[in-house]
Amino acid sequence: MGETPADLFHLSVEQLKSLPRMGEKSATNLVNALEKAKQTTLARFIYALGIREVGEATAANVANHFGTLQALQDADQAALEAVNDVGPIVAKHIHTFFRQPHNLETLQALIEAGITWQESEVTQGPTPLEGQTWVLTGAMESMTRDEGKARLQALGAKVAGSVSKKTTCLVAGEAAGSKLTKAEQLGVEVIDEATFIERLAAWEQSE
Fold first, then answer.
1. Residue 59 has pLDDT above 60, yes or no
2. What is the pLDDT of residues 167-199, one digit of tens each?
3. Residue 193 is inside which H or E element, if any?
4. Which residues contact 77 (CB under 8 A, 6 or more apart)?
5. Domain 39-117, what fold?
6. pTM
7. What is the assigned CATH class of domain 133-206?
8. What is the C-alpha separation between 81 and 86, in angstroms, rounded?
9. In 74, 157, 172, 173, which residue has its Cα 20 to 30 A from 98's Cα atom?
10. Is the pLDDT score of 58 beyond 60?
């Protein structure tokens, strides 16, 4: 009866009535429900696309960060990694999804079928860590280093792979090695994971 998700929204009561065990009342209710489903949010729409490893929370973060579907489609992998809770792997899945012709055709078909949501252009103001350079080293218990990196980037920081005089702060997890030693030699601020989490929470709340 249909080949893409968008075809669902073109179904009529007459078409549905022809299905086994589908009476006119059930068919009408389904058509009404589909009509109502056309009004959604950008976060729900992104989640419903079924992008690999993009759950409801990630979809909401992506929607809030970019504001519009077009901005999301235009984002490169680095921009995607700046979203809270989006690491390199998920960023790659999202980036790849919007580069595949079949997916773009499905998106266009859904929009043409009447799927709509309220969009809002995101105006990026000053971020708490703008101009700062951070380094992560050692193992962390509450998050991966990639997650920590993404959250720092979302707050405006640059995350480097090595310590230098330009390093603002080093986050030292378990078994921190030579980077910790170098940071101490250069007089760079060093914080542990617990302090890092406290600061992240405060900065993210202030945004």
1. yes
2. 999 999 998 889 999 999 999 999 999 999 999
3. helix 193-206
4. 88, 91, 92, 95
5. DNA polymerase; domain 1 (1.10.150)
6. 0.52
7. alpha beta
8. 5
9. 157
10. yes
